[in-house]
Specification:
alpha/beta, 8 strands, globular
Length: about 260
């Protein structure tokens, strides 16, 4: 008697998870770029949840402030563009960093992910076009793509539906009022006009806070942003929650001891 093949293979389940859960996708991206050693973190789950809300259209303006070495660039500048184009090969994304070297590194990492075997298996409809295949400016065969540039770079004639600004100013430059002003003015006059559809365009700023008048301080003074996600605040919330849970557990233990004591009398 022949047995039926399983409806879903383990690989099919994994591929489905990669397509639907950015947190799962980020883990695979990390392994592709750095090998094993990914350390799960509750804050990474929170960050990826909010980033997914920008994809669904529930959030159009997102600020995430995080200290260095917390995977903010892998999540926002590498994984997210690859994930968006995997789900929608027509999507056009612009990624901006403070310098050319950093912008190119993020672009190379994103391209490496999208050229990997596991990515092509999970997203069979997304393939790179040979017509435009530069590291900082590559396209899919469906017309989508990722453009990488640095602060002050030209965006003339280029648009998109999602703009990601990742560390627009170096900490060492933050003391300079001239550099801060130049960065903020370039954002106001150049970046904001690059949406294909201003009403539906998504803007994400991911950075380490370096000054009260850095880009985050600048934009929240000028207009309302839907979400402000501060890792420092999240840590405080987690600490408060753990403290409350500890107090509840201690009170419950005291109550049990008192009840047992009364029952023996």
């Amino acid at each position: 008697m022949m047995t039926k093949a399983p409806l879903f293979s383990d690989r099919a389940v994994v591929d489905a998870a990669l397509r639907t859960d950015l947190y799962v996708f980020v883990q695979q991206v990390f392994r592709t770029l750095n090998g094993n050693g990914f350390v799960p973190g509750w804050y990474i789950e929170v960050v990826t949840d909010w980033l997914m809300l920008t994809v669904t259209g529930d959030v159009r303006r997102l600020i995430i402030t995080m200290p260095p070495r917390h995977l903010k660039s892998i999540c926002a500048s590498v994984a997210l563009p690859a994930w968006i184009m995997g789900r929608d090969p027509t999507a056009r994304i612009t990624c901006i960093s403070y310098g050319d070297d950093l912008a190119k590194k993020h672009a190379r990492d994103c391209l490496k992910v999208m050229e990997s075997k596991w990515y092509k298996r999970a997203f069979p409809n997304t393939r790179m076009s040979k017509k435009r295949f530069a590291v900082t400016d590559f396209e899919t065969t469906k017309g989508g793509g990722r453009l990488a540039t640095s602060v002050g770079g030209s965006l003339t004639g280029r648009g998109g539906q999602c703009i990601i600004v990742d560390d627009p100013i170096k900490p060492s430059d933050a003391r300079s009022k001239a550099i801060r002003t130049k960065t903020n003015e370039w954002f106001d006059h150049t970046v904001y006009s690059r949406f294909d559809n201003p009403e539906a365009g998504v803007m994400i700023i991911v950075m380490q806070r370096v000054h009260l008048d850095d880009l985050v301080g600048h934009v929240i003074e000028k207009e309302h942003w839907s979400i402000f996600l501060s890792l420092r605040l999240l840590r405080k919330m987690k600490s408060t929650l753990l403290c409350a849970m500890s107090m509840l557990a201690e009170n419950e233990a005291k109550h049990c001891i008192q009840s047992a004591s009364r029952s023996r009398r």
